[in-house]
Design goal:
139 residues, three-stranded antiparallel beta sheet
């Protein structure tokens, strides 16, 4: 007698209603569903990680913008001293969802470093940082 999973055993015998072959369930019924679910899960995982990479890039860009604007604001107040220039830079960094990490004057140039926190995946928080320098035109 041929084995139950042997294709020659089922050849020529149509499956009965409900997917039964010779009164037993067809062992291959539902295989495409499992494969489709696995492919869907793979798309979700790759999509999630792709979105995390995009979120990191956007946070880096936001940090760069906040640092640039903070440096410009600080440079506008550089003649008033280090504290006033850095307070102005901090204010603009905060308005751009950043946090001023470092600020100091180098002559009339203002150097700032800004961090922006972001959440690429649920439960995972990271920080993107950027630095900028601004001052009077030379030359």
């Amino acid at each position: 007698m041929p084995r139950t999973g042997d294709p020659s055993h089922r050849a020529g015998r149509p499956a009965a209603a409900g997917g039964l072959v010779d009164g037993r369930p067809d062992p291959q019924r539902g295989g495409a569903t499992v494969l489709l679910l696995a492919m869907g899960l793979a798309f979700v995982v790759f999509g999630t990680f792709g979105a995390a990479i995009v979120a990191a890039g956007m946070a880096r860009q936001r940090a760069a913008v906040a640092a640039d604007l903070g440096a410009l604001a600080g440079a506008a107040r550089a003649l008033d001293g280090d504290a006033v220039a850095c307070a102005s830079a901090s204010d603009l960094a905060v308005r751009n969802d950043g946090r001023l990490v470092d600020c100091h004057l180098d002559g009339l140039d203002v150097l700032v470093t800004v961090e922006v926190a972001f959440t690429p995946l649920p439960g995972l928080t990271r920080v993107a940082a950027a630095s900028a320098r601004a001052g009077p035109v030379r030359g």
